[in-house]
Amino acid sequence: MYVAESAGAHGGPLRQDPPPGLAAADRPALVVDLVRLVRPLHSAKALLLMPVALIGASPWTLAAVGGVAWAALAFILASAAVYVGNDIADRHRDRRHPVKCHRPIAAGRVPVWGGYVYCAALLGLLAAVVGTGQGTYWPVPVYLALNVAYSRVLKHIPLVDVVTVALGFVLRVVQGYIATGERVAGWLLVTVFSVSLLLLIGKRRQELLEVGAAHRPALAGYSVELANALLQITAVLALVAGLIYLNTEAPFGPDHGGTAMVLSTPFALFALFRYLQIQLAGQGGTDPVRVLLHDRVMVGVCALWMAVLAATLVLTHYPVLAHAILP
What we know:
The chain is mostly helical. It is 68% helix and 0% strand.
């Protein structure tokens, strides 16, 4: 959603808005640009996080699955509106960025008024989804309000900027729990929050290396050394919180939580090692979602990890099957 106009005082003179004719020069590509505006790859944030609440739901019901799917749709629309609004607000600063200058609004392929209409349409669809859905959707307006505050003020405050964005991921998980009616797992929220911080700090570090503080004023409060230290702290917090969740609150039961924790430890460590290797010894890139989804090693390790946990969960809930398989 559009929340604030980015100031043009940072980083020198800015170009004026492109003539409206430039946005319509290639009309067949307009649909592609509209899709790019909403970052479809980032839909994975809702599609991966919100179904986590279903893990603890026993038994699964059609209502619970449908509620999570509907809630995921609501958050996808909310985040899409936020992306469009932020692209409108940041279009001047984006034109100075070597990658973001190619975004549809910054490049002038989609006119600013078109972005406003698009954002309004997304918010209208969001209102329809929330209005027709069952249950409570309070995390959605909180997420939108948080992004208003982020775009106006919080994005310019070092450290507060990454904490604010990380809270958006926590709200997604909370909405998933509301949809299932299950009790929220506190250690899971800590894990999601710390992993989100880990990815966001890695992103800030790469932005420092690639473009410096000219594009994002908050980067003036960061340094590569500070980012390296924060990566270490958040990696430890993510590891510890995740293992405690598996041992205590995950749906493996008191007899098998320790087993899940032990089996997960090498996978969790290697996943963190791999991410830190990408960030500190390679070219991590400023888009953590794209980096993780395109890294075959990370995808392979996480897929194997999930398979091990899924097998453990099945054997936990079906002890007869466990006795038949295990001597």
